Amino acid sequence: MSSSSTDSQTLIDVVMPQMGVSVSEGTIVEWRKQVGDWVEYEEAIVDISTDKIDTEVPSPAAGRVAEIVVEIGTTVDVGTVLARLATDAKPGQAHASEQNGTPPTSEAAAATGETPVEATATPSPEPDTATPDDAPVRRPARGARRYSPVVQRIAAEHDVDLDQVQGTGRDGRVRKQDVLAYIESGAPAGGAAEAPEEPPLHIESPYRPEPPAPKPAAAAPAAPTQPAPAAAPAAAAPAPAAPAGAYQPPAAAPLSRMRKLVGEHMKRSLDTAATCTTWIEADMSRVERARREAGLTALPFVARASIDALREYPALNAWLEGDEHTVHSDVNLGIAVSLGEDGLIVPVIRSAQDLSPEGLSKRIKELARAARSRQLRPDDVQGATFTITNPGQFGSVMATPVINQPQVAILDLEAVVKRPVVITDEDGNDSIAIRPMTVLGLSWDHRALDGALAAQFLAAVKRRLESLG
């Protein structure tokens, strides 16, 4: 938010907010206020859409809309000025043009914050017309309908024909809520089956059988051996078609914009941080027993153990911005959620230190569901102080996660796999037993931390997991 003064007004800028580490731009979907309208502090002034979030932007101050800088449908970078507010105006106060008895011109509207009368006047309804309750929502012509990126993506995922969705936005614009309500109502989609079950963040039986190899094409019977007749030279014949089951290289396609943004953020992190990774094994026997009894996955137990370890080693619950190392008192825990081809996003559990494993599990599910249905708010993806990523559902056993800037560490939870390990009893006798084991990997920034501290933190997490209950 920035301000400037003119001879008659003090103006405050409304800017495109930052909504997640890999989101660098947004699209204007709908203006809630027009030039000349009064807006209260934190009242919604404009709807914006990104590839991950469809949300409202609150007004940074109370005032009258003096200027709208960016039109509907325009995509702009984070930090771009969207509108300006006159903060020295008063609610209900007449503008200079009204005091003079003349309606303002368009030029005066930009300067005084007043909308011309002819642009806002509403004609009186004719007799026998429909009442507001049963009047249909006005829609633009079919060819003129515009949809936000989030609306288009949800419609594509569920095979919804947007022409069949009744819009409740301005001029009948179809909003995200309209598409979700249409899907939940069970309205027929373009041949789509019901929505797939929400993918898990973690499973305890991670391996999948290999898909069967394609059967080789049956060999053609050999032709009888006989002399081939002489043939005259001819033009080269076209190349024979590839046999059934042969590999066909896919057509080249450019990366999606979201994939580019995620890649840029990851590369910037690697260029910024002195990244190192430390691993430790943990016996998850007690976690497995506890999670089955509670009906949970392993992730909330690992999250709870990590939070406790962060309280013991607070230097990892921190940001490093330039030379500024900020250690946080609250653990705002980021949980990486995959959006498939759309990349990933890291919603945040605020004050996670106050939650039990059951509370963490509930919050993780809520945020993951909101992320996959594009219902996250800007506050849901900001302010994480430590992140956990959980790719073990596909059977991976070790990884080197990239630090989520400006954090100084990220914890990787891999698959829980049963395998033989050596255990020692109270008398010092060794034996081999089958135990559910996992690998915890910690990527950390060597500018802020060192290997000894990283190892101590991982040992603290391991100790809590193995002594659970």
Can you tell me about this structure?
The protein has helices at residues 96-99, 106-112, 117-120, 149-157, 176-184, 257-272, 285-294, 299-312, 357-372, 451-466, and strands at 3-5, 10-15, 25-31, 38-39, 44-49, 54-58, 63-68, 75-77, 81-86, 275-283, 318-321, 324-327, 333-335, 337-338, 344-345, 348-349, 386-389, 409-413, 417-424, 430-445. The protein contains 10 helices and 20 strands. Helices cover 22% and strands 22% of the residues. Strands 10, 13, 16, 17, 18, 19 and 20 form a 7-stranded mixed sheet that branches. The chain has a 5-stranded antiparallel sheet with strand order 1-2-9-7-4, with helices on one face. Strands 6-5-3-8 form a 4-stranded antiparallel sheet, with no helix packed on it. It has 469 residues and is of the alpha+beta class.
Task: Kindly summarize this structure in a few lines.
The protein is an alpha+beta fold. Helices cover 22% and strands 22% of the residues.
Task: Provide the descriptors you would attach to this structure in a database record.
469 residues; 7-stranded mixed beta sheet; 5-stranded antiparallel beta sheet; alpha+beta; globular
General form: globular
Mean of the pLDDT scores? Answer: 78
- How many helices does DSSP assign? 10
How far apart are the termini? Answer: 49 Å
What is the radius of gyration computed over CA atoms, rounded to a whole number of angstroms?
Answer: 30 Å
Query: SS-based structural class?
Result: alpha+beta
Question: What share of residues is helical?
Answer: 10-25%
Low-confidence stretches: 95-143, 191-211
Strand % is: 15-25%
User: How would a crystallographer describe the biggest sheet?
Assistant: 7 strands, mixed
Secondary-structure element order, as H and E? EEEEEEEEEHHHHHHEHHEEEEEEHEEEEH
Number of strands: 20
